[in-house]
């Protein structure tokens, strides 16, 4: 393993969010983000914010008809959480970190923030 990969794996195992009673709505990210602050966007495993509202297509949000295995992304730090895993285990494991400078992720998160304001 590369030195950076080892550091990442240690961070991944030790930097978890916290939740209360298997409830993803109570998620508190290690960066301090929570539902009442910047919230968390429902996203794909890649980190692109998704929507089930077809009219939102073309805005930057990725349209999906059915969300079978949703993830949540922290728009402040890029930590990605798997909703079903949180509900099952009662713990908020960080699945992986997403690069928030990736244009596709940045556009989808900007569209998500805009859609929340309206």
Could you list some keywords that capture this structure?
single chain; 118 residues; four-stranded antiparallel beta sheet; 3 helices; globular; YgiT-type zinc finger protein
How would you describe this structure to a colleague?
This protein has 118 residues and is of the alpha+beta class. It has one domain (3-117). Helix content is 29%, strand content 23%. It has helices spanning 3-14, 83-89, 103-117; strands spanning 18-20, 23-28, 41-43, 50-51, 62-63, 71-73, 79-82, 94-97. The protein has a four-stranded antiparallel beta sheet. The longest helix is centred in the C-terminal third of the chain and has 15 residues, at 103-117. The protein is globular, with a radius of gyration of 14 Å. The chain starts with a helix and ends with a helix.
**Spatial order of the strands in the main sheet?**
3-6-7-8
Strand-pairing-aware structural class = alpha+beta
Cα separation of the termini: 46 Å
Which residue ranges are poorly predicted, with pLDDT under 50 across at least 5 consecutive positions? 9-14
Secondary-structure element string: HEEEEEEEHEH
Protein name: YgiT-type zinc finger protein
Organism: Yaniella flava
